[in-house]
Each structure stands twice: as C-alpha cells, then as structure tokens.
Amino acid sequence: MKKLLNVLYVTTPNSYLSLDGETVLVKRDDDVAMRLPLHNLENIICFGYNGASPALMGACAERNIGLCFFSPSGRFWARITGKVNGNVLLRKKQYLLSEDQAHSVQLARWFLTGKIYNCRKVIERALRDHAMIVDVPSLTAVSQGLRGGLKSLSGCTSLTDLMGFEGSSAKQYFSVLDSLVLQQKSDFFFKERSRRPPLDNFNALLSFLYTVLTNEVVSALEGVGLDPCVGFLHQDRPGRPSLALDLMEELRPVFADRFALSIVNRRQISGKGFTLKESGGIIMDDETRKKVITLWQERKKEEIVHPFLKERIEFGLIPHVQALLLARYLRGDLDAYPPFFWN
C-alpha cells in the first residue's frame, strides 16, 4: 500500500477496502493494515480481487473520489463514479489541448526527452557494468549522439519534425542494441527493429513486451480518467491508443528493452521457445510467454525511488504515477509534465 499525491495505491491482492465513518480502512486477513481520512484522498487505486464495501463505494461516489479496480497484473476492470464526474472536465481539456499545435509539440518534447534519456541510460548501464566485453567505442559514440539529440529537441517546432527526430534517435539506439546481448547470441541476435511480423527471436520478444506495456499504460490512463486514444505526439487513428503510445515512449527503454536484455542475458528464457513460421515471422510458444509474464510480474514488485516524487514505490506503479502526473499537468495543477528519468 502506498499513498502518493493524495492517491492511495493498494497493491496487496488480498486487501479489502471498507468505510469507518470518514475513514477508509485497508484490511488484510481481517486485520486493519492502514487507515486514511477520506478527505485526504482524490483517488483510490486497488489491485486485487477482494474489492471494497458498498458503503465505501457510495462515499467515494458522493465525494467525487475516484475508486478504480485493476487485476493484480494491472488490467483495468472498472471505475466507480458519482453523479458529477470531474473526469469529464479533464477529458475535455485533453481533447482541447490535443488540437492545439503548440501544446502538442511541448508535450511531445517531454515524452521524447524521457525516451532519449532512458535510451542513453540503458547504454550507459552496459558500459558501466560490462565494459570489458561490450563494444565501448560504438556504445560511447551512440550515447554521445543521443546526448546531443537531447539538446536539439528544443529546436523541433512541429510534430513532423519531432517524429523525424524520434525515428533517427531510435535508429541510433537500435544500431547498438545487439552488442548489449551478451549471452545466447546465436538465438537472440538483433540486426534491426522488425515488426508485423518480427523476423528474429529478440524482435519477437520486444514486440510481445511492447504489447504488454501498451495494455498496462492504457489501464493507467483509464485509471486517472484520461482517454488513451487521444494523443499529442501520435495522432488520432481509429483503434490506436495514441496517448498510451505517447506515454510509452519514455517507459519503453526501461520497461521493455532493458527487461528483454536482462532475461536473455540471465538465460531465463531460451531460443527453444521461439518458432519460425512459414511466413518468415517468429512467434513465442505458450510456455515461454507464461515465463516472460511471470518474470514481468516479479519485476513490477521491485522497488525504485521515483525521480520526481522522491518516494520509494513498486516498479509496476510507474505507469500509474506518470499517468497521474500527466493528468495533473493537463488540469493545470503542474506547470510542466515531468517525464520518468531512470536512475
């Protein structure tokens, strides 16, 4: 359980929420694990199956306190709302700003700043931890190139410029990703990013992780009342969660790329779990997919100090915290959106 920015995150799956006067109780095995006054909260985010009492649901609806339910793995289930829902105003503001070129460009810059910073961190970590076995000159050159790119972001004045900049930065980053694969090289080599279909095992792993991360970011955005389909960097397209793709930019290097490298280099999965189809694409078998999901859930339980909040939180809460910070910026509670910078 964690309280951040007037939001209570209940991450213990067997927790039950109830009401005692003007206080929310978090119970675990009939014992009260936490008490918090309702007037101190604006959202309650619950990951688990036990749920909440009708009395608490009614109190949250009456006071316009968001009460959201997710599965333990982070899949969005439902949100309890009252007669007047502040999320309507938030979404109206989101739609308004998404049509404003200047605001869209500024938000897109922040998302890409987080992405490029975290791409550099993935490379810098490899240089720090494996300097004796990686291609130091190539990695250093790309790291310096990405660093220079961060300074160039301010010069991009249109979404077209930013998308072109993102593409060139990604190409630099992916050009050295193969040198970060230190084990099982014959099974998990990486030449270039390939999708629909992925043409090698590592690309298949990345595509799967990007899909998992997309679903988690969509759930996080829904949890704070934002529309996952209306973005700023990625333009609207039927069926595409554009805002989720925006927010994923800064999270992808840490949540997916670094995680993929880790489980390959630790030999937690093997090439035997991947199959070449007649179409030339690669797919994972069910057993490997289950193994990856299990390792993903374990990773989410690890703790990290959030760089903006300076609070220790579970890794899996980062998309929810970033969605909350984005909502606060759009509402005008923050002067700027703070991207997630991995340290």
Record field, number of beta strands: 12
Q: What is the mean pLDDT? A: 88
Order of H and E elements = EEEEEEHEEHHHHHHEEHEEH
Q: Can you tell me the overall shape?
A: globular
CATH architecture of the largest domain: Up-down Bundle
* Distance between the first and last residues' Cα: 23 Å
CATH fold name of the largest domain: Four Helix Bundle (Hemerythrin (Met), subunit A)
The number of domains:
2
Q: What share of residues are in beta strands?
A: 15-25%
Query: CATH homologous superfamily of the largest domain?
Result: CRISPR-associated endonuclease Cas1, C-terminal domain
Strand order, main sheet: write it out. Answer: 1-2-6-7-8
Tally the helices.
9
Structural class: alpha+beta
Task: Please explain how this structure is put together.
The relative contact order is 0.12. Helix 4 (136-152) packs antiparallel against helix 5 (159-175). The protein has 343 residues and is of the alpha+beta class. It has nine helices and twelve strands. It folds into two domains: 2-84, CRISPR-associated endonuclease Cas1, N-terminal domain (Ribosomal Protein L15, Chain: K, domain 2), CATH 3.100.10; 92-331, CRISPR-associated endonuclease Cas1, C-terminal domain (Four Helix Bundle (Hemerythrin (Met), subunit A), Up-down Bundle), CATH 1.20.120.920. The protein has a five-stranded mixed sheet with strand order 1-2-6-7-8.
